[in-house]
Design brief:
The structure is a single chain. By secondary structure, this protein is mainly alpha-helical. The chain has 2 domains: 8-147, Serine Threonine Protein Phosphatase 5, Tetratricopeptide repeat (Alpha Horseshoe); 214-307, Methane Monooxygenase Hydroxylase, Chain G, domain 1 (Up-down Bundle). Helices cover 56% and strands 0% of the residues. The chain has helices spanning 2-5, 12-20, 30-42, 46-58, 64-80, 83-89, 92-102, 111-127, 136-146, 214-240, 248-274, 278-306. Helix 7 crosses helix 9 (136-146). Belongs to the TOM1 family. One of its GO terms (molecular function) is phosphatidylinositol binding. It comes from Mastacembelus armatus (zig-zag eel).
């Protein structure tokens, strides 16, 4: 059938995807990845042309460097593109016919590829569960669980999709997922679809300008523990709060946690652009991933909560820990 439609890489977005997933790349080309998102959002045929190109790169490809790049492009597009693209990427045809096939036993892909595919399916199933026309991925997710497929992480707040750097800033070295099985390590974007609220990210150009001292690293990690604590509390509340039964004070606390975590993330993104220590950068990226996932859950459910009457109070003691991440002051 493809010969009737032509080469998927011949379209504008297809050509960009072919370049962005070329196995010769040492790390993700974030400028090109964001250009792909722009084409998808700005053209009539962008979504379906992009899906065709991604399918071509993923189907039967044993070059797992290219597969990982393609999965990163795919995830970046889900984070940054709208409903037309979501309909295609969450369909049973794509999830089962493309993504699940990648991790089938006969293909025997590396563990990192299996984990990446399963993490994407799990994250999308949770994010789009309440959208009737996007539940194909939810059905596949439930079917995989019934078959005994073990997903890499069970708590959604610990899932780490990606952090999409701003177009003006370059991705820090060592943040590519590819490092985990060849040379580059896991990136982690943020920039969510139009349906969600995107936090303000400062335009930082001082990439890799700070090599922190052991004392600074110790202080930063202590502050990151505060961020993780807030993220954990926020995740627990999202899990426990039932629309129509939540107490007004619980919802106010959830809103305050959201505001506080977004302020913390702004400083984290600054640090990612400033810090040149690879281990610290990786830790920052993972914390940023956790925040992105919790924001995705919050935004996908906040409309449901606000549209329901107030109910009972959640029986737990929760507080918002505030922290300005002073370490970020070194990024000048």
């Amino acid at each position: 059938m493809e010969f009737l439609l032509g080469n998927p890489y011949s379209t504008p977005v297809g050509h960009c995807i072919e370049r962005a997933t070329d196995g010769s790349l040492q790390s993700e080309d974030w400028t090109l990845n964001m250009e792909i998102c722009d084409i998808i959002n700005g053209t009539e045929d962008g979504p379906k042309d992009a899906i065709r190109a991604v399918k071509k790169r993923l189907n039967g490809n044993r070059n797992y460097r290219e597969v990982m790049l393609a999965l990163t492009v795919l995830e970046t597009c889900v984070k940054n593109c709208g409903h037309r693209f979501h309909v295609l990427v969450t369909s049973r045809d794509f999830v089962d016919g493309v993504l699940v096939k990648i991790i089938s036993p006969k293909n025997n892909p590396p563990t990192i590829v299996q984990d990446k595919v399963l993490a994407l399916i799990q994250a999308w199933a949770d994010a789009f569960r309440s959208s009737p026309d996007l539940t194909g991925v939810v059905q596949i997710y439930e079917e995989l669980k019934r078959k005994g497929i073990e997903f890499p992480m069970s708590d959604l707040e610990t899932l780490s999709p990606i952090h999409t750097p701003q177009r003006a800033a370059s991705a820090p070295e060592g943040d590519s997922t590819l490092h985990k099985y060849s040379t580059p390590a896991q990136p982690t974007p943020h920039a969510v679809p139009p349906a969600y609220t995107s936090p303000q990210v400062p335009n930082i150009h001082a990439s890799g300008s700070i090599n922190p001292t052991p004392e600074q690293i110790c202080r930063l990690r202590s502050e990151l523990d505060v961020v993780r604590g807030n993220t954990k509390v926020m995740s627990e509340m999202l899990t426990e709060m039932v629309p129509g039964q939540e107490d007004a004070s619980d919802y106010e606390l959830l809103q305050e946690l959201n505001r506080t975590c977004r302020a913390m993330q702004q400083r984290i993104v600054e640090l990612i652009s400033c810090v040149s220590n690879e281990a610290v950068t990786e830790e920052l990226l993972h914390v940023n991933d956790d925040l992105n996932n919790i924001f995705l859950r919050y935004e996908s459910r906040s409309v449901v909560f606000t549209s329901c009457p107030v109910g009972g109070n959640i029986d737990c003691d929760r507080t918002v820990q505030r922290n300005v991440l002073h370490f970020g002051n070194y990024c000048n």
